Every structure is written in C-alpha cells, then in structure tokens.
Amino acid sequence: MNVCPGVVKELLSKGEGETPTFLHNTKATFHFRTLAKQKGSDSEIVIDDSRTMGCGPFELLVGRKFKLSVWEDLVKTMRLGEKSKFTCSKELVSDYPLVSKSLRYVAKEKQGTAREEDRPVVRHRCMATGLNEHHHHDDHHHSETGYADLDDLDEHPRDLTFEIELLSTEAEGNYEKAIWSMTPDEKRDEIPRLKAKGTAQYKAENYKEAARFYGMAIGCIEELLSREHPKSDVASALETQKIPLLLNYCQCQLNLEEYADAIRHATSVLEKEPDNVKALFRRGKAYAASWMPQLARRDLKQAAQLDGGLVRVVARMMRELDDVQRQRDAEDRARLRAGVSRGPQLRRRVTIYSANRFGFPCQFVGFSEDVAFALGAHFRRVGRVDRFNYPSTTHTRRSFAREDDNLSIDLVRRLVVESALASNRL
User: Fold this and answer.
1) Do residue 350 and residue 269 come from a single domain?
2) Is the pLDDT of residue 92 over 90?
3) What pLDDT does residue 343 have?
4) Residue 114 phi/psi, 5° resolution?
5) Which strands make up the sheet holding 385-390, listed edge to edge?
6) Residue 417 above 80 pLDDT?
7) Confidence band (pLDDT; 50, 70, 90) for 119?
8) Cα end-to-end span (Å), the chain
9) Same domain flag for 279 and 222
10) Contact criterion met (CB below 8 Å) for 126 and 215
C-alpha cells in the first residue's frame, strides 16, 4: 500500500474504530522501531527501539514542522492501536541521524547518564529536546553524531523501515503543552506560573519536583533568549529574570545532594553577577560537600566579605572544613604508611589524571600495589581525579566540577607529599 511517494505501508495489526481526525496541534503518541538494511546484504538491523532505548513513546504534534516530517504522514494513516510497517526512501529520512541522536540524549537524561558533550542543541538540561525544524542548522550532514551507527547512516544514506504502533491521540487543549511547542507569548506567560509551582513544591519539601518546575521555567527563558540578539534590552531583561530561577534550582540541587549540578548553576549566575552573595554561598556549600576545600573557602570567604550577616556562619563552616581536613589527612597518612610497611611488593606504574580543565596526567613509577591502590582510593574519594589506572584495575570514572585551575595546584602539592611518604622519605 502506497501512503505517499517514497513510502510503502504494510499493515501488521488492525487498530480500532475509524482513523482519527488529525487537526493542527493534535498530539499523537506512538512506539516505533527503526530498521535499516546492512550494507551489501538484505538482512535488517535495528537502529532504534522506543520500547528499549529509554526515551519512552514518542509524542508528535501535528502541523508543528517536526524535523522528520514523513512521520506525520505515516501516523495520519493509522487507527488507534494499529501496528504497521512503513518502508521510506532515503530521500525522506535523511534527517533521521539527527533525530535519533536527540532521542538518545533524552533517554540518557532520563537514566541520569547524559553528558554535556552528548547534548544535541545548546539549551538547559531540564528542557524537552525540542526537535522542531527551526532549532537546527542545515549543515549536519556528514558530521559526527557520536554514534557509529548514526555516522554510518549519515555518510551512507539508505531506505529506512519504521514499525509504528499508535497508542493515543489528543486534541489541543486536552494535554499539557511541552515548552518547545509553545508560542513565545505562551512561554512568557508560563514562566511565573512555573516559578510559583516550583516554590509551592519547595515549601512542601518536594525538592525534586521543585527543581523540575524551576528547570522548566529556565527552559522557557532560554527558548526566548534564542530568538533575541544577545545585547538587546529584551535579552538583558530575560537574563535578569533567569537569575532567581537559577538560584532556586541550585538550592534544590543542594538539598538533593546533587552537588555538581548545584555548582554548575551557581557558576552560571556568577558569570553574570560575580558578586551575587547567594550564588557564592551556595556554590561554596556545594564545593565543601564535594570536598573541594580550597574552592569552598574561596567562595565562602567572598560571600562573607560581601554580606556581614554571613560572617559567623562562614567562620563556623571554615572551622568544620579545617577539622575534616585534619581528620582526612591523618587517615590518608595512616593508610599510606600501612601500605608501605607491608614490605616489597610488585611495583606498579601509577597514572593519576588531574582534576583540572587541562586534564594533564601526573605519572609516578615504583609504588607498591597497596600504595598505588591507596593513592587512587584517596583521590577518588575527595573527588579530585577523573580516573585512576594501574595495570590490573580500572576504577569507575567520577564526575566533578572543573571551574578552577587551583585544583591542579592542590593536586600536585598533595601528590608530591604523598609520593614522598610512599617512598619512605617522610
């Protein structure tokens, strides 16, 4: 059955009732599976499957210029509950690698494994990815997506098969709009409502929900900013409106012990307002909780200098940092001495990758295996290493903030002291 030029439909399972009326802004929700023939073979391989990839069913708004426009044509031929297979010519699916990358990013966000470099478009992490056509450039062809299968598909276009099951349709007004689907005026009106919802959830101590609403409000502002000249009065007003939302989001993440995220959002505020006391104090607390004492002391000291009301609180926090520092130093020294005292062992080449933006490796040779492990355990625990390797072990990568080069100075200082201790020179 030909749906439109370049598309052949095969019915797998009949749906119920008549074909729905797909008016403008109707939301169609469906599961999909994407297949492609292997090069030089008639056998098909699965590229994506919404049931297993983690992004959940796809939600398509009719008439909103979705990047892969052929999907709208396919869905419009289906009844509720229907399952069908559509084979589409390569000319109609050339944008699929970009769409797939965005969906895979959504899946990683939901699983908590998304990285900044995976982000398909520049926008706030709490937003929907928004695959509208006007959000993307036209120069994506033959560019690296970060996925070998998508890069191959981009470099060697071919026909794709989509197996689709239509789950539901909802007319406009019967569902809550996603941010990316709102008009600019709707986004402006939504910002104070989202902020109020976030504040209500925060007062109820539902910090995760509060962060979600604050994040959505930030997403609205960033969508609006993408339409404005960076130096315009409108952009300046939007940036000012975003500051308290970033601070509120940061506080939620502090309460949730998501310290890296708290640091990142406080830093966003400080890039605009270097003397923002709340941002300095909250980032200082996040640094302290992440055990980055140098950075914590720097931020807390600056906050106290700007706001005299914080002097006593900051002084108490500084004493607590000093107490923990002494305790951890004593524990590390004891652990290292224990490793040295066990006598000659197999010598290891130890590479510790420093936690600064340049990521240079400090390499020391000749540690015993116990000392090598003790050093790695110490630096992983204090959050100062990206990864620690020696020949028989590769430990789990740990994430950390990279805002300050002083991290490398502190790391090198401690490495020198502890490597000397490990060699019985202290």
Assistant:
1) no
2) yes
3) 42
4) -70, 140
5) 361-368, 347-354, 385-390, 393-394
6) no
7) low
8) 81
9) yes
10) yes
